[in-house]
Amino acid sequence: MALSINDTAPDFEAETTEGRIRFHDWIGDKWAVLFSHPKDFTPVCTTELGYMAKIKPEFDKRGVKIIGLSVDPIDKHAGWAADIKETQGFAPNYPMIGDVDFNVSKLYGMLPAAVSGDPAKRTAADNQTVRNVFIIGPDKKVKLVLVYPMTVGRNFDEVLRVIDSLQLTAKHKVATPVNWKNGEDVIIAGSVSDEDAKKLFPQGWKSPKPYIRILPQPR
Predict the structure, then answer these.
(1) Domains of the chain (ranges, CATH numbers)
(2) Which of 52, 108, 144, 154 is least surrounded by Cβ atoms within 10 Å, i.e. has the fewest?
(3) Other CB atoms within 10 Å distance of the CB of residue 133
(4) Which of the residues are catalytic?
């Protein structure tokens, strides 16, 4: 079954390039991004892993931990990391899961439960559904799921933008409009009555329609 927003992110134990982890313990009280790859030494994923390493300080600033996954053993990840460093300028500076038993891919709905066998005998096309991004909150709930085809590189700047929105809206009773970026105006959440909004936002708001209440981003 595919995971949906607000589902609890499945916990698991796995070997990574930084040692064995239990996922929920590894997240701790942070936010987390889990992004998956169908196989090592694939071209689009090579660019993604390098870019994610480059912008990791932006995730660090937001209190977000990054973890990758590939359906290959971790001893292959080291050779791939060298290629990523050579071609992209940055090697992965976050753990990479070796999902050789397909356990995490199955738990997260990326591969069917019936999948088994030697991962080395599977091609990237066999694992093409292992191209997801999951944002997980400190409460271990899934906050966002993105699924990409193998031919389309992911936009991790968009992932950062979503995290800014999620962290803001978790703290304040607001929502963010189309193409919103950090620092821009926001919308009072529809679940907040005008009476409660007056208490929460005494500075007032603009309302071009009764159901659209716009105000500067809370700090």
Answers:
(1) 13-152 (3.40.30.10), 172-215 (3.30.1020.10)
(2) 144
(3) 20
(4) 45, 139
